[in-house]
């Protein structure tokens, strides 16, 4: 049984904008000046000072409400679980950055120390992220290539190749932090909105492909130099296939076994996560087993397997970044900063919604900026978050960043005391762990079919970003993706789906006439809905879509015909001139001219079955000066053709702009504007009542043929 629907009845006058303004007095509001905004921003009192402290140090807010008995145990368990994953991922992702594995542990420790105080998210795990590691590694490979001399940088003098790579990575990370901190201070956290979910998905998928290819040399045990630049992925694959016969079988078998086991256990973790108190730390378990087997059977000497080797024990003294590296890597550091923040913010947003608390985009920029600057000073590389690591921290009971701090402490213990135990670990094991963790990003290829079926422009953004990042590199690929995304926005606004509306009988509702069977559409009335802003790029598109004819051409033909008719009634000089683009002058004729009536044979004027045109501006959010001029010209052409034009549901700010720009004159009047579509329709129906006797047939005055001359 259908649910009972409520009804409402409203009895009121039919309003135009003018009559509505006359009956309902409007409050005059004085907008704030720029000086008022500055004065308000700089004004300080105790309340604002407290809010500023809580904003800059979010730890003060959540630490005051920390529930020790309820949350502490969960944070400790979560911190230990996350720490095991962070250690393994730090070692593995350092290979992507072309750095010794021990520096991945630095990234798992230092950035977390400052984010603990400054970050607004309580659940993300701060540390290395494979996409950022790869982007940093591209700069490292370019400035310190494996098979050639390093770049001509003064800071490289007296350093070993590994030290040069660490200097490049830390300098790029320092500059990345400066960019993030500057954007946070300038309150431009909104910049992340330009990276849509579709663009980020395509970009991270392309990054996963790059990561997969970069790890093949470790899994296969091949000596392949790092390649940077456009088409680098193709050149890398070429070098791998050239050397494929030199594959180290021990590395390959060990990698396959580890990938299969880790994949199966991860799937079981996902399937039974509701029953497991904490996920099984399979990466840590396999790493320990691989270390023991490699050490016991002496894989390095017996099977020529590359191992992690000497681990840095303890922490080295801070270093200053290289200004020369800044100059060489500024172009790459900015997209690294944007991508790092975008990924971290999107992950933080998911968990903030799930656990019902707010995060501040600008404060997150400040937190990551300071964290990367601080970490880079101690030789760590770019930090953000990884979805898999954050999922472990949240699902294992983590409630606050105390879990993150404990995970950082675990990385510190490995660095200070236990690092030597990881020295016999084969690098192929780290490569296998990186590859098996790419599953989530590689599965995003399934989105292509989904997007193609539901939103083809979004599919174009995904494919364009992915292909651009795969073929041109991640930095240029991100620029390509942004370009394609902006083009789709331009395409949607420049060529929107316009519609002609009709009334649903018995209601004040108007819908697309193509979508409904029973509609009311008065003869001679057209309701045209404009579904987007009107600006310089689409004003001509709207003018062409308004009606199925050229109003200026019809007006000129009418005036030519009228000039010929007047010559027969008034004996004037044959060289009389009239402006053909001006309104038709019907003075002096002994009848009312009806251009749709039967005309003499040789007077050919296009028939226009339109007396009222209603423009629905309810979806028009802004109107620029170029569009204003084009709209004014279009309205004048219709008015001069004796077509009444009405504009309905116009935004009050657009209406004010029309007044300020002198839009109205003796032809375009404010009385054309109506607050609702139904008001305009009722006005039209009341104005244009059928009166068949109001006009005479022009052929009664011209029983003979008339030759129309220019």
TrEMBL record:
- CDD domains from the UniProt entry: STAS_SulP_like_sulfate_transporter
Provide the GO MF annotations for this entry: secondary active sulfate transmembrane transporter activity
Q: Which residues form the signal peptide?
A: none
Name of the molecule in the record: STAS domain-containing protein
Gene3D superfamilies xrefs: STAS domain
- Superkingdom classification of source: Eukaryota
Chain ranges passing through the membrane: 72-97, 103-119, 126-145, 165-192, 199-220, 240-264, 276-297, 333-353, 365-382, 461-487
Record keywords: Membrane, Transmembrane, Transmembrane helix
Residues forming the STAS domain are 515-684
Query: Pfam families attached here?
Result: STAS (PF01740), Sulfate_transp (PF00916)
Cellular component GO terms, alphabetical: membrane
Subcellular localization, as worded in the UniProt entry: Membrane
**Membrane topology category:** Multi-pass membrane protein
Q: What is the lineage of its organism?
A: Eukaryota, Metazoa, Chordata, Craniata, Vertebrata
């Amino acid at each position: 049984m259908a649910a009972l629907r409520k009804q409402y009845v409203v009895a009121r006058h039919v309003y135009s904008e003018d009559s509505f303004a006359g009956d309902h007095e409007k409050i005059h509001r004085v907008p704030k000046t720029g000086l008022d905004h500055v004065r308000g921003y700089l004004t300080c009192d105790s309340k604002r000072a407290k809010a500023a402290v809580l904003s800059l140090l979010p730890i003060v807010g959540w630490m005051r409400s920390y529930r020790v008995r309820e949350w502490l145990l969960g944070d400790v368990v979560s911190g230990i679980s996350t720490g095991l994953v962070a250690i393994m991922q730090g070692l593995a992702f350092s290979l992507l950055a072309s750095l010794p594995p021990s520096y991945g542990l630095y990234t798992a420790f230092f950035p977390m120390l400052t984010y603990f105080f400054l970050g607004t998210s309580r659940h993300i795990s701060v540390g290395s992220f494979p996409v950022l590691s790869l982007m940093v590694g591209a700069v490292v490979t370019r400035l310190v290539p494996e098979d050639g001399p390093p770049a001509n940088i003064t800071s490289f003098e007296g350093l070993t190749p590994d030290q040069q790579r660490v200097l490049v990575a830390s300098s790029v990370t320092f500059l990345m932090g400066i960019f993030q901190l500057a954007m946070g201070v300038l309150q431009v956290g909104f910049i992340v909105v330009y990276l849509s979910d579709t663009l980020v998905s395509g970009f991270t998928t392309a990054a996963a492909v790059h990561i997969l290819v970069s790890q093949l040399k470790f899994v296969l045990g091949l000596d392949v130099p790092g390649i940077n630049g456009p088409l680098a992925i193709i050149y890398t694959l070429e070098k791998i296939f050239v050397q494929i016969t030199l594959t180290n079988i021990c590395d390959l078998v060990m990698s396959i076994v580890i990938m299969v086991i880790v994949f199966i256990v991860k799937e079981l973790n996902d399937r039974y996560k509701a029953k497991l108190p904490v996920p099984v730390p399979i990466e840590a378990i396999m790493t320990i087993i691989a270390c023991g087997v490699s050490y016991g059977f002496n894989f390095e000497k017996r099977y020529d397997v590359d191992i992690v080797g000497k681990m840095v024990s303890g922490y080295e003294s801070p270093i200053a970044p290289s200004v020369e590296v800044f100059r060489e890597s500024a172009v790459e550091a900015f997209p690294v900063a944007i991508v790092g923040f975008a990924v971290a913010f999107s992950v933080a947003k998911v968990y903030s919604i799930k656990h019902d608390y707010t995060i501040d985009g600008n404060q997150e920029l400040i937190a990551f900026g300071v964290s990367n600057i601080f970490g880079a000073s101690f030789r760590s590389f770019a930090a953000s978050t990884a979805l898999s690591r954050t999922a472990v921290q949240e699902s294992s009971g983590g409630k606050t960043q105390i879990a993150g701090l404990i995970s950082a402490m675990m990385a510190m213990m490995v660095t200070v005391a236990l690092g030597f135990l990881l020295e016999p670990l084969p690098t192929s094991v780290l490569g296998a762990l990186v590859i098996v963790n790419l599953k989530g990003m590689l599965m995003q290829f399934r989105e292509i079919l989904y997007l193609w079926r539901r939103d083809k422009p979004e599919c174009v953004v995904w494919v364009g970003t992915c292909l651009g990042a795969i073929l041109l590199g991640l930095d240029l690929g991100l620029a390509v993706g942004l370009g394609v995304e902006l083009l789709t926005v331009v395409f949607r606004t420049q060529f929107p789906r316009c519609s002609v509306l009709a009334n649903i009988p018995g209601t004040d509702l108007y819908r697309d006439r193509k979508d409904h069977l029973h509609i009311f559409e008065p003869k001679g009335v057209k309701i045209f809905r404009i579904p987007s802003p009107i600006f310089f790029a689409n004003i001509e598109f709207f003018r062409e879509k308004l009606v199925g004819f050229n109003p200026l051409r019809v007006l000129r033909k009418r005036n030519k015909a009228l000039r010929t008719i007047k010559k027969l009634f008034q004996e004037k000089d044959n060289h009389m001139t009239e402006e053909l683009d001006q309104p038709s002058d019907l003075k002096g004729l002994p009848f009312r001219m009806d251009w749709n009536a039967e005309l003499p044979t040789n007077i050919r004027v296009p028939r226009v079955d339109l007396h009222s045109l209603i423009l629905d501006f309810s979806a028009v959010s802004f109107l620029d000066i170029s569009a204003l001029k084009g709209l004014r010209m279009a309205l004048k052409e219709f008015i001069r053709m004796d077509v009444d034009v009405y504009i309905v549901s116009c935004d009050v700010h657009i209406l004010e702009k029309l007044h300020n720009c002198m839009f109205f004159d003796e032809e375009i009047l404010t009385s054309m504007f109506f607050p609702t579509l139904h008001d305009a329709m009722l006005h039209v129906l009341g104005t244009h009542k059928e009166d068949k006797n109001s006009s005479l047939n022009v052929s009664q005055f011209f029983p003979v043929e008339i030759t129309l001359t220019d």
